[in-house]
Design brief:
5 helices; 257 residues; alpha+beta; 11-stranded mixed beta sheet; 14 strands; 3-stranded mixed beta sheet; elongated; disordered C terminus
Length: 257
C-alpha cells in the first residue's frame, strides 16, 4: 500500500462518499466518479498566485449537484457529510501543494436537469478571493523590451509536436490540459507556460514529481529554443524561431531535499 499522503487522502475521500452513496443510492450513482470530480474541480479551478514562486490557490467553495429527490434524501440521511468532505478537501489541498485563503465548504444542491443516476461537481473561490485574482500578475512598464517569439512549439519525444499559440498553456496528464502528456508519472496538472513580454516562461505548478529543464530541477524557467524539459518519464524540447534572439533563460532552482 502506498505511503503517499495524497493517495491516502484520495482513498479516504472516495471511501467516505462511497459509504454514504452505496447505502442511499445502491450504486445507481457512481461514488468514485464524484470523488474524482471533486479532485478535478480542485485542480482545474486553482487560481494563479500573485507571486510566481508562491503556491496556487485552491478553490474553497464546492457544490455537488444531484437530482432534486436524491439531494433531499442525501441531506436528510447524511447532514454531516458535507462538513466531513470539506475537512478532507482542506487537508488534500494542502498536501497537494495548494494554498487556501479560506476554509473549504461543500454544499449538496438540487439540479432538476439531472437524471436519477447523474451528478455533477462545481468549484469556485469566495468573492473576496476571486476579486483579488483579477489583479494578479500586473505588467510592469519598466520591463526590458524583448523580441517576441514566433513559431513556438513543444516537441514531445516519441509523440509529436504541440504548437504554442495561447498566452497561457496548461500541461499535464488530465485531458482538460492544453497539452496532454500520457505518462503515469506526470501530474494531472503538472506545469504551465505563460507568455510574458513575448517570451514563454515555464512554471511547475507544484507537481508531485517535479519538472526539470536541462537536467536541473526548476520551479520557474524562461524558455529558450533548444531547452529540454523533463516531466515524469517524458522529454520535451522547446523550440521557436529566435534561437539566438532572446536573453539568457532565468531559472529558479529548487533546493535539494
Amino acid at each position: 500500500m502506498s505511503a503517499n499522503p495524497i493517495d491516502k487522502l484520495e482513498r479516504q475521500l472516495q471511501e467516505l462518499i462511497e459509504g454514504a452513496f452505496s447505502r442511499l443510492f445502491r450504486r445507481t450513482i457512481d461514488a468514485r466518479d464524484i470523488a474524482l470530480l471533486l479532485l478535478r474541480a480542485m485542480e482545474d479551478n486553482a487560481a494563479l498566485p500573485e507571486l510566481s514562486w508562491a503556491k496556487p490557490v485552491a478553490p474553497d467553495n464546492y457544490a455537488i449537484y444531484l437530482q432534486p429527490d436524491n439531494a433531499a434524501r442525501f441531506l436528510a440521511q447524511f447532514p454531516d457529510l458535507p462538513a466531513r468532505l470539506a475537512a478532507l478537501l482542506a487537508e488534500l489541498s494542502r498536501e497537494s501543494g495548494f494554498q487556501l485563503h479560506a476554509a473549504p465548504t461543500v454544499a449538496v444542491l438540487a439540479d432538476s436537469r439531472l437524471e436519477t443516476h447523474q451528478a455533477r461537481v462545481a468549484a469556485n473561490h469566495s468573492p473576496a478571493i476571486s476579486a483579488s485574482t483579477e489583479s494578479m500578475n500586473p505588467v510592469s512598464t519598466d520591463a526590458p523590451p524583448r523580441l517576441p517569439v514566433a513559431n513556438a512549439h513543444l516537441h514531445i519525444i516519441g509523440v509529436g509536436v504541440a504548437p504554442l499559440s495561447k498566452s497561457v498553456v496548461n500541461i499535464g496528464r488530465d485531458s482538460a490540459n492544453d497539452v496532454v502528456i500520457e505518462d503515469d508519472f506526470v501530474s494531472r496538472h503538472h506545469a504551465q507556460l505563460r507568455k510574458r513580454f513575448g517570451v514563454y516562461t515555464l512554471f511547475d505548478v507544484n507537481s508531485r514529481g517535479g519538472t526539470m529543464v536541462n537536467s536541473t530541477v526548476v520551479s520557474e524557467h524562461r524558455l529558450q529554443s533548444g531547452d529540454v524539459i523533463r516531466m515524469g518519464h517524458t522529454d520535451i524540447i522547446y523550440a521557436d524561431d529566435f534561437r539566438n534572439g532572446v536573453t539568457d533563460g532565468t531559472t529558479q532552482v529548487l533546493p535539494a531535499d
